[in-house]
Amino acid sequence: MSANDKKESKQDTLEREVESVVDEETAGLDPAEAGRIREKVRARVLEEVERERRIRTAAERRAEERRRREEKRRERLHEEGEMFERFNRNFRFQHIVMFTSVIILVITGMPIKFPEFVLSRFLVNMWGGIHNATIVHRIGAGMLIYFMVHHLFYTVFSRQGRRDFILLIPTPKDARDAVQNVRHFLGKTGEKPRFGRFSYIEKFDYWAVYWGCVIMIGSGVFLWGEEIVLKFFPKYVLDVAHEMHSDEAMLATLAIVIWHFYNVHFNPDRFPGTLMWWHGQISEHEMKEEHPLEYEEIMAKRSKQKAAEVPNP
Amino acid sequence: MKPLRSFVMAGLLAAAVGGMATAGNAGPTVGDCQECHGDKTIEMTMPDGTVRSLFVDGKAYRSSTHGKAACTACHVDAKAPHGKLSPVSCGRCHTEAAKSYAQSTHGIVRAKGNPDVPGCGDCHGKHDIRKVQDPMARTFRLNIVGVCLECHEDRVIEERYDLPDEKMMAAYRESVHGMASRKSGLLGSAVCTDCHGNHLILPGDQPRSATHRQHIPSLCGKCHSGILEKYERSVHGKGMRAGIAESPVCTDCHGEHTITKISDPASSVYVKNVPRTCSACHDKEAISSRYALPKKRFSSYMDSFHGIALEYGMTKAANCASCHAFHDILPASDPASPVNKANLPRTCGKCHPNAGENFAKGMIHVEVSPEKAMGVFAVRVFYTIFIGTLVTLFVLHVAMDLLGRHRRGKAKAGKTEG
User: Are residue A57 and residue A7 in the same domain, yes or no?
Assistant: First the structure.
């Protein structure tokens, strides 16, 4: 019995039921009057049935769409393979706090370095004037300081943090990888360097943030509390802090815009960017492409686990 | 007619005629002149074809300051029917004024017979002359500006005599002095004649002129005497007294006709405009070399947070005058100067409470050079090299990556085709 037949039979029973009720009610009336009422009831019932049908199809349409989406996802999963968690929730949170604060700091700080730049006036007036912009800059600074503290605690007290930190320490292999990568770019060798959990590119990114945070927060705190600082230091110390803050800001912005944005968001593999910072997942395909050593390590660990599990069921 | 009656009549007539004759001897009365000149339609065609009214408003004349005098007091050669009268010479009575006028730029040009230039009547009026103190006088304080601008707001005249732009003249109306007299009706406010003089008006570049640079401070000080006193003590005032023409006087900072309140954003001494006003001289190589003044004052200020914040409209940020003072400005070497090293903590403390002596250790106007600020210079050099190297490496890396991808993409396409 197809769905259509079922629907029709259901409609038949409904019709019959309604008719019997109408018959009962109109028994005492004369035939002409009864016929008119019958017609009226029939039209009303049809209308009701049609409405219900329409509602049901809309719901079905939505369900169908959901199913299709699910299927597509599964198909892609098949192509991309298993999803691995590259960044845990804590790490993602740190990254979000950091980039929010950096964006705030750049858009409120750069207009002070480049007052002649076309957007500067807009960026300052957006907050309602320079005074407010300086307050917003301090809010961004507070967020960055929080991030720094959070990350230090994460590095020291979290297992993942400790592990990642050790993996982020530059090794001679990174230098070899860099040379090989350049040779690969230039077509001197067909083989891409095989990266571990963190490539030299990512390590550079990480340590650039480290260096940047130390300089920016250090000099920034000096400038923030200038009146206290001037109790203990002569003014030329503050001038040096000011110069460092301004120059390091330029370096950090350029590093983010050129290095980080290209390697993470805008290179042709990733364009126009990924949502990895949000879900933290990396596909098997990407894993094999970009972090083959880490992938192999995970697989080796799994097979070892499996081997360990089998003997004692 | 009876003889007696006719005799009496004749006697009366003779007396009347005699009376008239005596009156005639003293010249015609105002009433006599008014017989013709009281007629509104009386007019004369001039040789060049223009028609000129010869009407004289008797009422206005009688209420004028000369109203009790006869017409002939000024029109000395007037008699019953008359042709062209000789020009009126006010100097017959007003000798002092005439003497001054003759030396003025107006007087000199008018003496050459130039009709564009005002004579007495053009400013004071003719038959309706009133005393300067009379609010209805053309030369009354509140009216005089309009009288001067009758000509000086005329573009043709301004151009013909190579005078400043007519807009510059009319700008007075919008100035703080102009608004005070025009809108508030303040008699104490400066009008044209207060600065330029009245009869003895001379161009500002002549040493005798009231508006010559050398006289400006005392001229403004006639009203602003407290400020003059401060100015005289300042390095600018001393320079001016010593005859250094480049030393600024009031008008160099405040403007002349365009003087506005310091709270007006258009004013050259409005907080936001002060650095540009000062740097008009202090950013000039010639001036800072000639008087051995420190250089790069403007650029080093504009690079500081004070300068940038001021540019963005933070009016409480320090401008030149906040630290250096304005009318009583003194060189930093003077112990009384607010920017003397010893006084810096107090000066900075106006905005930065608890400012200590460390404020004075180091440059306020930071000039980035090895001699002036070694630390800042070293940091800047380091970062210039560091940023340059890193960015070059970044760009190279990115470019090589893109190039490699491009080449491999092409190779792959070639392979699949082949």
Answer: yes
